[in-house]
Amino acid sequence: HGKENVDSRHSRGRGGETTRFHTVNVAQPVRFSRKCPTGWHHYEGTASCYRVYLNGENYWDAVQTCQRVNGSLATFTADQELRFILAQEWDLEEKTFVRKDQRRFWVGYQYVITNRNHSLEGHWEVAYKGSSEVFLPPDPIFGTAMSEKENVLCAQLQCFRFPTLWHRGLHSWYAENCYEKSSFLCKRSQTCVDIKDNIVDEGYYFTPKGNDPCLSCTCHNGEPEMCVAALCERPQGCQQYRKDPKECCKFTCLDP
């Protein structure tokens, strides 16, 4: 324990001897506000992180981009998760390939065509067999750039952002040529993020984002666990000082 905020008290024990108690500040529980890297949106219902990439890529390139960040093109487990996605205000600073009030994103489904006779018939499938149990989209709207040689189309989720309809979660599902370029939605498991916004691997020690730079925790299933706190000595010869918010036991002296 450090010497800061130590209160020494005395009481009489058996035989008249003096017993000294030290009351030391105890680290308070910290609310860990970040479970996703910068630029990702966290949803507690699935313990997942989501990010829209607005630079246009075809479906297969989008798949690889998501895999490089330890994720995959998003699939959805329940209506509540989809409503969460529709309610987000995704960053629009980059160039987009669709109108801002009608955004389309590649997501992790494919439409397999089984009959081309009078109308296109087929069914949705999850693009990746390793995906967790998900719901499948309703009948799609078919894109305009289809090739007759293609038997597999890829899913685009279209979100509408008209001011009068935004809060209703209006959306559509498209089955589109997989080689069209589009924005896309990646999904990954929540992760440990340290105080300097670095991603922490499972089982490693780190200082989580929060209010205490002197915490050391272990990353377990994307959560900080088994945390230990250090208490620092106050700086010597300094009456007024400020603690560094990101460095443990680092102070700036404010004396004249």
Describe this structure in words.
By secondary structure, the protein is mostly beta strands. It has two domains: 41-92 and 99-189, Roll (Mannose-Binding Protein A, Chain A); 194-253, no CATH class. The protein has two helices and 18 strands. The strands form five sheets. Strands 3, 4, 5, 6, 7, 8, 9, 10 and 11 form a nine-stranded mixed beta sheet that branches. It has a three-stranded antiparallel beta sheet with strand order 14-15-16, with no helix packed on it. The longest helix is centred in the N-terminal third of the chain and has 10 residues, at 59-68. The chain is elongated. 24% of the residues are buried. The model is unreliable at 1-14, 19-31 and 93-98 (pLDDT under 50).
